[in-house]
Each structure stands twice: as C-alpha cells, then as structure tokens.
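Recall the central idea of this unit: under ordinary conditions, the amino acid sequence of a chain determines the structure it adopts. In this exercise we apply that idea directly, starting from the sequence alone.
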Amino acid sequence: MRVTSSFPLGTLRDTPSEAEIISHQLLLKGGYIRRVNSGIYAYMPIMLRVIEKISTIIEKELNNAGCSKLLLPQLHPADLWKKTQRWEGYTAGEGIMFNLKDRQGKEFGLAPTHEEVITNIASEIINSYKQLPLCYYQIQTKFRDEIRPRFGLMRSREFIMKDGYSFHSSKEDLSCFYEKMEKAYENIFKNCGLDTVGVDADSGSIGGAASKEFMVTADAGEDSILFTESGSYAANIEKAVSFPSKEVPLKILDPEWIETPNQKSIVDICQKNNLDASQIVKVVIFVAKFEDKSEVPILACVRGDQHINEVKLFNLINKKYNPNLIHLKIVEDNAIVENNLTNFPLGYIGPDINDETIKTNSNWAKSWVRIVDYSASCLSNFVSGGNKFNFHKVFQNYSFINKQFLVSDIRNAKKGDYISPESNETLKEKRGIEIGHIFQLGQKYSEKLNAKFSDKDGQLKYLWMGCYGIGVTRIAQAAIEQNHDDNGISWPIQISPFEILIIPTNIKDPNQKKLTEEIYKEFKSNKIDVLLDDRDERAGVKFKDADLIGIPFQIIIGRDSINKEVEFLCRSSKSKLKIASKDLLEKFISESKVMYNKNS
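Accordingly, the structure predicted from this sequence is:
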C-alpha cells in the first residue's frame, strides 16, 4: 500500500495528555487509535490491520482445535440474565452492563459476555451425547460500563474480544477439552510474538470450578502475579494461597484493657504500645447484599500485618452460605449514617462485638456471619478492639469469645510469603496484563437455563460447559508494552500492520523514484506485506514516523540509488546494512524467517 493514495498516516508529534502509560501514548502518537470519548476509541486503518492479524492467528488455532466460528447478538434480553440471577449484579450499583428499555418497555443489556445467550441456543440445538463435545467461538465487540476507563484499550468501555464456549457430556470430557484449550492459548500467544505466564485465577462473576489467566508481564500491568523462582507455582493475587511469616508471640498483658486514644490504625497502635502488627487481630465489618435484597453483616478477622482479600471473602460467602450474593460493602463512615449507627465504634471493633449492633434482615442468617483468617485463628494471645471508643483489649485465643467463627483463607497473599509451612521457598511478585482467561464452568448455566442432553442410557442430564476468552485489542496494546523503545513501537512481525516499510528519502529524485517502484512491485508480486511511504516529506520526518509506528523492517532509498544500492534496517536490533537492490528480497526473506521463528 502507498501512504499518499490509500494508507494515510495520522501520527502526532506531542504526547496526548490523557495517556498515562507508554503503550497508550504510542497507540495515539502512532495514529493507531483515535479517542472518541472516555474509554471509547476508533480503530484507524493501521490498527485494524493489527487486529485482523491477531484475529487470523486466533481463528487458525481454534479451527485446528475443532471449534466453530459464529456471531452472536450484542443486545441481550434481560429475561435470560435474570434466569441465571446475574442481571441485578451486572446492572445495579457498580454493575458493568450498559442496559436500556425498548419502546415496549422490555429490558435489554449490551453484552459484556455471552454465557446466557450461547447456553440458551445450545439448549435448543443439542439433544444427544452424540453431538458432544461442541465448541463455538466468536470475535466481536463487547461493552462494559467501567467505573474508571483508563490506560487506552486496557480498560475501555468498548473493546474487541474472542469468547468461546464448549459443551460436554461429562466433567471428565470438559477437563480434557480445557487442557486442549490451554495448549491452544499458549500457541496463540506464542504465535502473536508474546511472552506470557499462565496463572491460577479466580473465576469471578463468570463462575466455575477452575480457571486460568494468561498474563503478559509488564510494569504497567494492573494485576499482581505471585510466583516461585522454581516455576512450581504461579497465581494472581486474587487467587494465590500462601503462608505468612511467623507472628511475634504476645505475652499476657496486665491489665486486660489498653487505653488507645485516637489509635484507630494498626501503625498507631503498634508505635504507641510497643506491639508488633502480627500480635493484633484486625476486624472489618462488611454488609453482604443478596439477590432477594436481604442484607447480612459479615465480620472478618485477619492478622494485623495482613490484608483481607475481598474476592476470596465474596467467594467463600457465595459457596458456604448463600450462592446469590451480589456484592460486599465495607461498613465505613458513610454506611454508619445510612444505618443510623451513631455509637458504632469504628477503629475499635473486636471479634466479640454484639450481633445487635447491626440488624440482619435475612431469613437464612439470624445472626452475623463471622469469619477468621487462618493467620489470625492460630494466635494464642492477641490484641483487638474493645468495642468502645479509645480502647483495645487482650484476648486469650478465640475460646474466650462466645461466638461461632468459620476459619478460612481470606487474606491477600504477598511476596515473601512461604508456599507451604514446611517449605523455604517464598513467593516473588511482578506486574501483569491479563490477555486471556479460560474457565471450567461446570453446570452453573445449564442448570439455570435447563440445557440438557440425552446420554447413552437415554437419561436427560445437564450439559457441562467451558468458557474461553481472549482480549484481542488488549493483545495489541500488551504487545507494545513488551516491544518498544524511546523512539516508538517495535512490533512482533506476526502482528505488525506491515512486514516492511519502504522509505525513499527524496521521492522527487528520478533515480530514487524509479528504484522505489521496482522494489515495491517486486515485494508486492512476492505477496510480502509492504507499505511505501511516498510522501513528499523531509527524510527526518519519515524516519521518525517509521520508528514510531514500528514496522519490523525498513528499506531506505537514498543517494546510492544511482548505484542500485539501498539500506536495509531492522527496527528491533537497529542493525543497518548497505545492500544491492537485486539481493534485497532474498535478504528480507532470510531475516524475516529468523524473526518469525524467534517470536513463535
């Protein structure tokens, strides 16, 4: 393609002020995307080529795995989501689904994901075990009403995603296919030229028994990955399980009560009372809201040097107590006003606080749900809130508290933790960008949407399901995080908008123009993805744009064109070679083959 006639570049000289991270800056400066509104972008022709190349890689791998491509509607009827009890959670409060009513007053949502729709379709077309396993996928725009859109395509309101859904006759068949998809994902990301890490992950609002995230490691990543140096363990921070360092033993203090005026934080209590944070039990109150609009107070205890993992806490309540949990809200100052609790001792709450302090309006929970993390449960003596302002007190373990506690893992794992009580191997941490996620959904959706099949014995059974997502536009931006320098992008050749860029330094020079046309036609005739910068611009402008947009190879045609010689440049290594034009095609084929093999 030619820049002047069919492929104009829209590069910028200044860095847009709204771009916080380097990949977002380079996408805007390179003319790949244009901001329309907060979290909404137009994909310019040069970006669309990247997206199409990523999509082709995905389609090839999934087709080889026996998946079938389709296209599902983006507008979903609320009725389907209400059957799976996800409508209110996705639309109310901080829900991420854009929703609307049509002229008849019927409710609809713009799809953030497609479990309900595909399961409903599967229930109509799958009748027998002989049709299984079956996997459908699509590559389509998704919508999510992000509270704070940021980082360009990393967290936007509209994005392109590949989502796939498999159906099976048994848990074992699902597990087998899940492993097959895990391998397919590894191949996809490798063929996109990316270095990825697979980590155990939380299933979140999608649900299911098992899930795995695929992360691109990058300093700009929003997620924390915890891993061992040996590679024996890797998980995201929402899922990671570990064991903290040993606590500092607390001697029995006399008196039992400790006056702690204005000492609400762990730091203040430790500094002013000569205590270690591991000797304190921190108590946090949540209010859990459920589908039936009931609210139940949750008391969560964790060691003072640790932090509560709200995802683990949410999943625990969902699993152990009530599967219809919508969200958890920490009881803070604003919540005190809402509940008219004028004497609630925030900052001084202990594990033995009276249930009557906050009323529960649930039929299944007549009293508070009390949960203590493993790290706090094993303390023989500890300091915690005294349930009155400006006082803490000493507790001699939980047997002295006339309340029932569930002991579970509800803390955030962190770097430096041990992977087991017996091991000396500790966790390390790095940042990551999630670009793919696979789930074993089990029968969660098939049960609620009555999706059944007839087994070998003629018995009707619920389908087993898997779910597999890839952020297509996220891959593009994550690739830039891994492949850039001070001058711009340096694309992996597999997903670069073009493989090579031809730059005549003076398009008006007859010798340059003639040689440029000869090389361009030769490369085109050999089906090489080539872009010709035939603008009447200064050479410096063209060189700067070439480095910014990051095409892997450049052919620079200058004064030596009179001798049929050009410069051949590799963007990533910055190597430059003067070469006869007759040898150019062979050189490119050789060098590009090395780059394809290296990246994949």
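The longest strand covers residues 428-442.
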